[in-house]
Write a structure and sequence with these properties.
The complex is a heterodimer of chains A (363) and B (325). With 363 residues, chain A is α/β, with parallel strands linked by helices. Chain A is 44% helix and 9% strand. Chain A has two domains: 319 residues, Thiamin diphosphate (ThDP)-binding fold, Pyr/PP domains (Rossmann fold, 3-Layer(aba) Sandwich), CATH 3.40.50; 31 residues. Chain A has twelve helices and eight strands. In chain A, helix 1 packs antiparallel against helix 10 and helix 1 packs across helix 11. Chain A is globular and about 70 Å long. In chain A, 46% of the residues are buried. The longest helix of chain B has 15 residues. Chain B has two domains: 183 residues, 3-Layer(aba) Sandwich (Rossmann fold), CATH 3.40.50.970; 127 residues, Rossmann fold, CATH 3.40.50. The chains are: A alpha/beta (363), B alpha/beta (325). Bound molecules: thiamine diphosphate. Chain B: GO terms for molecular function: oxidoreductase activity.
């Protein structure tokens, strides 16, 4: 009989919550790289805060903030090579940007511009997924393709803890494992799926252990410890490249803000819990302390980069806002490779309608 | 030319395209060693290997979802869903994912995949094996939906589907798999998607149909001719995009329209065609448009199938009715 109590529940953590090295397995990264990681965290936190403000000003649409999850997203995406694939959820914008997705386009996406989801040609990033867990299967297929082609690329799908209840998640782990696909299933367990807490989502002790049923490796990592996430991901990538099959990573983290800008988390979350994660367990603070103790950064440096990144972000916003609004007839152009007759006729109808509207001076 | 059944024509189409294009891979339940439950993929795994003809776990959403990932990363998958009644399991992956990816990524990612599935009634299957669900996919922009009614079309349409850069749902009428043989060219050829076939010319009534009922309607048309009623029969062949031009031209000539399909009446493709014809050719009509279809019940148990499906007396009655105006 398999007993959950017999399972080993290893939790990978390299830095303690106060930024002290706990574990010898710390990745050998140069000082420049450590600083680069931290800069990504700061930049992404500022970006997230900016997006919230823009949403309140009515300049972008509904937005799903990721503050609190920077270490999980940045640490994991940083361990990838350029040609590796990412299949993100709506919340994994930082991972996309670390992998090369232009910030301007992310902003365009939040503005509801189709061009925001048009991944640049040389980048292997899929548009964000709204349907929970659907992307896990796309990633499984993409990884199988890499294997069939004999390419060494690894495919990562990002999803939340809620996604692990969906059939697609289980089908994806199963088919990827049967095919020994180079796929990494990266769960950002932020403890909440909108208002549903983890204990109501799953009765298993960890999400990582779900891998066991599919004959693949699962690992649980402190998702607010960027060095631990990076190291676990690096190992997973190597395992995939060596043809050892897929892996499930559970990064234990927390969403500090609301589910989206349309959500009020005070209805379901207790203040003490939120406070604890923000004040005591924030991933940026932890890494800052570590770097400060190493003598790599100080407050002056911090305010300097914040100033620079604020300018960078403002520039990206201005660039996005300068892009023309999507036109109605553009919507018809991407349905099929060539629009068929009835669709083309509908497109002409919109054009005529809009021309008449403008002609009447109501444009 | 070879004399082939529809299932042989379908297999030949896959085999020939796989020879030409090594991006094509087949996947599904039992498609490998077993050659598919209807033997559509018989011998293909032995010829092309397990990497190109893959038996998948028993998971329809996984079959379609992984095919999407395979498409995006350079392959042209031909996925088999064992029976169309199981397609509900894949609804998200087909309608919300495969069909929309071109749109969602503003053209950056496309899904050149084919989903093959046997469907259609009259052969006494267990529950949920015979349902005609094509209307669900007419309502899903970004997909094409193709239904052959004979071996020649089956081969040509399937080749077109495999060469198409859009996701194509290819529905194979089960009762036709081995119903008859037909001369089919040995070399690969295309029958264009989106083009209906006027299988019989006539002047008094137009009947639009597809799939298994095509043969039936042709027979009824022959009988009607003996009674002096000239019926034009259109095999639609493609549900999405619908070849409205051919239908309208025919209605302008005959001024009467009947649509025959196996699927349930409400919300069926017949309603769509009737609406289009009333938009584009209302004043050519000399009578109401009638539909002869399955009834609005779940697909019935075997003993009552034959009365449930469109049959000759029901079609004859509809012809008499439109002629009486
Ligand atoms: C199939 C599906 N069902 C429901 C929703 C509505 N919904 C959006 S996000 C969400 C919670 C997801 O939680 P989780 O997977 O943990 O990811 P997180 O939002 O925490 O990153 C729900 C229920 C959806 N988008 N898709």
């Amino acid at each position: 009989m398999f007993d959950e109590n017999d399972l080993k529940h290893e939790f990978v953590q390299l830095l303690s919550e106060d930024g002290i090295v706990k574990n010898e397995g710390i990745p050998q990264l140069s000082n420049e790289t450590l600083i680069e990681l931290y800069e990504w965290m700061v930049k992404m936190r500022l970006f997230d805060e900016k997006m919230l403000r823009l949403q309140r000003q009515g300049r972008i649409g509904t937005y799903a903030p990721f503050s609190g999850q920077e270490a999980a997203q940045i640490g994991s995406a940083f361990a990838l090579e350029k040609d590796d694939w990412i299949f993100p959820s709506y919340r994994e914008l930082a991972a996309m940007m670390v992998h090369g997705y232009p910030m301007k386009q992310i902003i365009l996406y939040t503005m509801g511009n189709l061009k925001g989801s048009q991944t640049p040609k040389d980048l292997n990033v899929f548009p964000v997924q709204i349907i929970i867990a659907a992307q896990t299967l796309h990633a499984a297929g993409c990884a199988i393709a890499s294997k069939l082609k004999g390419e060494k690329h690894v495919t990562v799908s990002y999803f939340g803890d809620g996604a692990t209840s969906q059939g697609d998640f289980h089908e994806a782990l199963n088919i990827a494992s049967v095919n020994k696909a180079p796929a990494i299933f990266f769960c950002s367990n932020n403890h909440w799926a909108i208002s549903v807490p983890l204990q109501k989502q799953t009765a298993s002790k960890t999400i990582a252990q779900k891998a066991v049923a599919y004959g693949m490796k699962g690992i649980q990592v402190d998702g607010n410890d960027i060095l631990a996430v990076y190291q676990v991901m690096k190992d997973a990538v190597e395992q995939c490249r060596n043809g050892e099959g897929p892996i499930l990573i559970e990064a234990v983290t927390y969403r500090q803000g609301p589910h989206t800008t349309a959500d009020d988390p005070t209805r379901y979350r207790n203040d003490d819990e939120v406070k604890d994660w923000i004040e005591r367990r924030d991933p940026l603070k932890r890494f800052y302390t570590f770097l400060q103790k190493k003598g790599l950064i100080d407050e002056g440096y911090e305010s300097e980069i914040k100033k620079k990144f604020t300018e960078d972000i403002d520039r990206a916003v201005a660039e996005a806002e300068a892009v023309a609004q999507p036109t109605t007839d553009e919507a018809f152009d991407y349905v099929y490779d060539k629009p068929h007759k009835l669709l083309a006729e509908q497109k002409r109808e919109v054009q005529r309608f809009l021309a008449a509207k403008e002609g009447n001076g109501h444009g | 030319m070879a004399n082939l059944t529809m299932i042989e024509a379908i297999r030949e189409a896959m085999e020939q395209e796989m020879e030409k294009d090594d991006r094509i891979i087949i996947l599904g339940e039992d498609v490998g060693k077993n050659g598919g439950v209807f033997r559509a993929t018989e011998g293909l795994q032995a010829k092309f290997g397990e990497d190109r003809v893959m038996d998948t776990p028993l998971a329809e959403s996984a079959i379609i979802g992984t095919s999407i990932g395979l498409s995006i990363n350079g392959f042209r998958p031909v996925a088999e869903i064992q029976f169309l009644g199981f397609i509900y399991e894949t609804m998200d992956q087909i309608a919300a994912q495969a069909a929309r990816i071109r749109f969602r990524s503003a053209g950056r990612f496309t899904v050149p995949m084919v989903i093959r599935s046997p469907y259609g009634g009259g052969i006494r299957t267990p529950e949920l094996h015979s349902d005609s669900l094509e209307a669900l996919f007419l309502h899903s922009p970004g997909l094409k939906v193709v239904i052959p009614s004979n071996p020649y079309d089956a081969k040509g349409l399937l080749i077109s589907a495999m060469r198409d850069d859009n996701p194509v749902l290819f529905l194979e009428p089960m009762p036709l798999y081995r119903a008859f043989r037909m001369e089919v060219p040995e070399e690969p050829y295309e029958v264009p998607i989106g083009k209906a076939n006027v299988v019989r010319e006539g002047d008094d009534v137009t009947i639009v149909t597809w799939g298994a009922p095509v043969k039936l309607v042709q027979k009824v048309a022959e009988e009607s001719a003996k009674k002096g009623i000239s019926v034009e029969v259109i095999d639609l062949r493609t549900i999405q995009p619908i070849d409205l031009e051919t239908i309208v031209q025919s209605v302008e000539k005959t001024s009467r329209l009947i649509i025959v399909h196996e699927a349930v009446k409400s919300g069926g493709v017949g309603g769509e065609i009737a609406a289009l014809v009333s938009e584009y050719a209302l004043f050519s009509l000399a009578s109401p448009i009638l539909r002869v279809t399955g009834y609005d019940t779940p697909y019935p148990v075997p003993p009552i199938e034959d009365d449930w499906l469109p049959n000759a007396p029901r079609i004859e009655k509809a012809i008499n009715k439109v002629m009486s105006y």
